[in-house]
Amino acid sequence: MLSAMRIFIKVVELGSFSKAAEVLNMAPSSVARNIDNLEQDFNAVLLKRSTRQLLLTEAGEQFLTGARKLVSDEESLKASLSQQELQPEGVLRISVFEGFGRVKVCPILPGFLAQYPKVKIEIDLDNQLVDLHSENIDIAIRIGSPADSSLHARMLMTNQTSLCASPTYLAQFGSPKKPDDLLQHNCLLLDRDRQRTYWHFHKAKQYKKVPVQGNLTSRGGTPILEAAIHHGGIVLLSSWMMDDLIQDGSLVRCLPEWTPSLSEQSSGDIYALYSGGKHMRPVIRAFIDYLVKALKL
């Protein structure tokens, strides 16, 4: 309908079907057919045709005013949406599991908000899975690709894990020499639906599955990490939670010749989950791009 209105406006401006057709790169018959369709759709004669000139009827004058307004409104809307594409704005709602949010996401938020002053962020650090649609979440950051096929996923990083304890704990209770030695240690555990916890170890073609036990279990990594720092036991967590603590000597890697993980295969990759695909809000794309860049530094 709007394309036909544009043709009508051009015919009126140029005063000729043939001139309008030439400017619009259309056949004169196609121009005339669009005008005829408009007159049929609105049940009104819009133009008085003669061999010499075209004249607007009273209905045509009214239609021209309305058509110009609609075309102008569409162009304004396109310009507005285009501007939003260039400058992210609005509220961004993020759900991220507690450890990753605390260590990797929260520290970059001030820089992102300084770069995009029209954005406001609402962030929830939660280890529970959330439904993005029902809870109105724009981005969820989780370990593993989504089971929901309606969501899109962008990998942020590989979730490697490390086995660590404090130097004081190891001095008091000894360092494990092999995975089975963990049976004699206090292991700080992530809650796995209250099932028996196994830690998994790979080295070349060797594989060990150890049923570990301990006096502290948590749904999130922070409590057991703090316990390990304060000499409470041995912990198996994501390396990104402990790299700085290893570097400053607060923690020491145990069994460094083995590759540990919380599951038999691997500890999974970390993804940003979102809906919308190609039509996602600019602020979502901007934040994920910013986060990916920050994680590479």
Short description:
With 297 residues, the protein is α/β, with parallel strands linked by helices. Helices cover 40% and strands 24% of the residues.
Textual characterization of the structure:
This is Transcriptional regulator, LysR family. It comes from Shewanella halifaxensis (strain HAW-EB4). Residues 1-57 form the HTH lysR-type domain. This protein has 297 residues and is an alpha/beta fold. The protein has 3 domains: 2-83, Arc Repressor Mutant, subunit A; 90-157 and 269-296, 3-Layer(aba) Sandwich (D-Maltodextrin-Binding Protein, domain 2); 161-261, D-Maltodextrin-Binding Protein, domain 2 (3-Layer(aba) Sandwich), CATH 3.40.190. Helices cover 40% and strands 24% of the residues. It has helices at 2-14, 17-24, 28-42, 58-86, 98-105, 109-115, 167-173, 221-229, 239-247, 282-296, and strands spanning 47-49, 54-56, 90-96, 119-125, 139-143, 152-158, 161-165, 187-190, 198-203, 206-211, 217-218, 234-238, 252-253, 259-261, 269-274. α1 (2-14) packs across α2 (17-24), α1 (2-14) crosses α3 (28-42) and α1 (2-14) packs across α4 (58-86).
